[in-house]
Structure formats: structure tokens, C-alpha cells
Amino acid sequence: MAGPGPGTPGVLRAMNDRAALDLLLAHGPLSRTRIGSLTGLSKPTASQLLARLEAAGLVVAAGTTTGRPGPGARLYGVNPAAARVAGLDVTPDRITAAVADLTGGVVGSSEVPCTGSGGPAGQAARALDGALDAAGLGRGDLRRAVIALPGSFDQRTSVLRHAGHLPDGHESRALPEELAAALSVPVGYENDVNLAAVAEQRLGAARGHDDFVLLWNGAGLGAAVVLGGRLHRGRTGGAGEVGFLPVPGRPLVRQAARVGAGGFQELAGAGAVVALAAGLGLAPPPADGPAGAGAGGAAQAAAAAALLRRAAAEPEGAHLRLLRRYATALATGLAALVAVLDPELVILSGAVTDAGGAALRDLVQAELADLAPSAPRLVPGSVRERPVLRGALESALATARDEVFDTLRR
To answer: Among candidates 167, 89, 83, which has minimal Cα distance to 128?
Structure first.
């Protein structure tokens, strides 16, 4: 049977209810009077709205106001237990899982190595169960999970590309299917850098910006593109694979002799920092694992970050030359993105560029002004703790909230 038409009382009630829930999520517990003030509803209408939301289990009493003469007003908040979601971040080294309630509060987390019994899918299930155990929950309590994957995930065909650096070379349809079977909960998949952009858009530096680019530089080099407030994934999910971008002075990726060499990745990835530093006589600080051209992505990123952190702390001599040369490398690839997209904001994120701090960022901004037709503002990412995992949770929460709140229309 068709639902109520536009403008009918039922639709207006549902719109007001959703507006109130969004306000409670944004501001935390509010009084009936405050909800009425923010929504423009009368006190009787606001009271009826809150009664409906309480009856639906979406709102609960959350104490009373304090600090004013007279009895405190009753406060209402979103019911955290109305839904729970999970986020998982799958990297070549480890898998991290977290569980959040409907308000976005993290109630449990866990981390396991990526390698182990059952491969990445089996280890993902262990990470999820560990996070659920920490929260005192089971898989049946989850409404949805979103998994961050390195590489390009094609939403149309469920094919994962450019993820051969994962254990067992999972670069096909296999891993998403294996993850879904191992987790046994409704699952969504997204590129890891795209999810870092989701976190910045909802909670961080990109709030209020509809067009921006996030350049991630850690164990790998990638970008996320947001246009008109929406992620731009491209036809096959490959938008933002800027490591493949042809740049002056570097071989094309197809001509490169080793995996991950060539293009913008070779010019400005973590390995480029190590190579530039070596050419300037700067040795990387001692690390737990090997560094240099043959090192794994995480170890190389750690070495690059250490070099840039030291250079930013003492920006003179060889350290300053390292920062300047690396800034030119970063700006070379960024200039191509800016020329095509003309974003209002570029976020520099990931362990490598984070380590260079404001000293590196200012040099990149100056270089970009000379290389690109426009000069978007460069800012650091402000979601500092596990931005990819936070983005996975935010993506799962957006879907779960729509599903839960949609019950108000029925």
C-alpha cells in the first residue's frame, strides 16, 4: 500500500521527528523547550514528538538541566542501544575492528594481525568478535558493518582491484565474498582513503565543504575526491588511485620493474622520502624493522615519517633541502588534481605528510601556487585517531540511522 503523499500530516510528523533526532545527535541531550526552539515547533507539538520517539525506543530520558533556579527541565537523548554498527580497517599488516552505538560512541575495539588462520577473512572475524566481546555484545546485535579495504572496490561488480599487497594476493572478487561469509552480518565495503575523507567530512577538517580532495600518504599514496558533498568513486571505484598518475621524471607504472614503482607513487610516496634523504646524506633514525627500497610499506612509511619529523623540527641545512624537494614532489602530483577538479580544499593526511607538519605544508602550498591554475587551501586532517576506522563507523552509522529512523514513516 502506498505511503502518505507529500505534505500530508504523516509526512510532516516524520520530517519533524527526523529533524529532532538529528539535533539530538548533533547537540547531545536537549530539553523539550530547546528542541522546540531549534525546530520552530510549539511546546505541545514538541511534547507529542518526544512521546512518539520514546514509544518507538529511539529517545530516552537523559537527566535534567542544572545550574538554574527552580526544578530542572527533563533532558532527552538518542537511545544508544537502538542500533549498533561495526567498522573494520583491513591493512596488509593488521585488522582493526570497532563497535559503536547509535550515537557514534565506541563501545568496544580489537586488533589482530592480518595473517593467520583463515587468511584476512578469518582474521577479520576474530577482530570483530574481539570488539563485540569488549562491548558485551554478539554478532546478532549488529545492524551493519562497513569494511575499509586497500585498493579499488567496484560497487557494481564487487571486484576488488589493486590490493595485491594484501596477504595471499587477494586482488579479485574473492576477498569481499569471503569477508561477508566470515562475518555473517550485513556488510558494506569502501576504499580506505575514501573512508578517511568521510571521517573528515563528518567530524573533521572538511565539515562545511562540498568539494575537496584528501591526499593520503602513509604505507601507500592515494586520494579521495568529494564533489557536491558526495564521494566520487568513478565507474569502477578507481577514482583517487593517484599512485598511478604519470609525472615528469618517473617511469610509467606499466614500465616499472617492481610492484608499486613508477608514477606519482615513486615520486612522492614514502620511498621517495627515504631516497631523497639518502641523497642528502640523511640516514633514517633506527627503526624496529628494515627501511629503504626493499622494505615493506609500513616500515618504509615509518622511516619516512621519522625523517620528515626530524626535518620539520630542525628546518635548516640538509633538513630544509629535504622538505623543499619533497614539497615539490607532492605539489607536482597535486597540481594535476587541482587543474582537473578545482577543489576548494585539499586535506593532507596520513603518517608521512602528517610528520612534516606545518613546515612541509607551507612549502607545498607555495609550490602549488606556482604549478596549479588555482590555489585551494591546504590543511591537515583533524581526525587524528584512526581516521579510516572512524570513517568506516560513520559510513555504517549513516545507513543504520536511515534504516532505524525510517520506521517513523511506517
So the answer is: 89
CB 62 within 8 A of CB 72: no
Q: 316-374: per-residue pLDDT in tens?
A: 999 999 999 999 999 999 999 999 999 999 999 999 999 999 999 999 999 999 999 99
Q: 20 and 139: one domain?
A: no
- Could you say which of 34, 55, 78 is where a domain stops? 78
Among 349, 386, 384, 354, residue whose Cα is nearest residue 96: 386
d(Cα 213, Cα 201) in Å, to the nearest integer? Answer: 11
pLDDT in tens, 26-59: 999 999 999 999 999 998 999 999 999 999 999 9
Domain with residue 248: its CATH number is 3.30.420.40
List beta partners, residue 106. Answer: 100
**Is the same domain home to 50 and 105?**
no
Question: pLDDT (tens digit, 9 = 90+) per residue, 268-311?
Answer: 999 999 999 999 999 877 755 444 333 468 889 999 999 999 99
Task: State how far the Cα of 195 lies from the Cα of 190, in Å rounded to an integer.
Answer: 7
Q: Specify if 1 maps to a domain.
A: no
Domain housing 22: 9-78
244 neighbors 263 (Cβ within 8 angstroms) = yes
Name residue 83's amino acid.
A
Same domain for 263 and 171:
no
Angle at alpha carbon of residue 90, lines to 387 and 155, rounded to 5°: 90
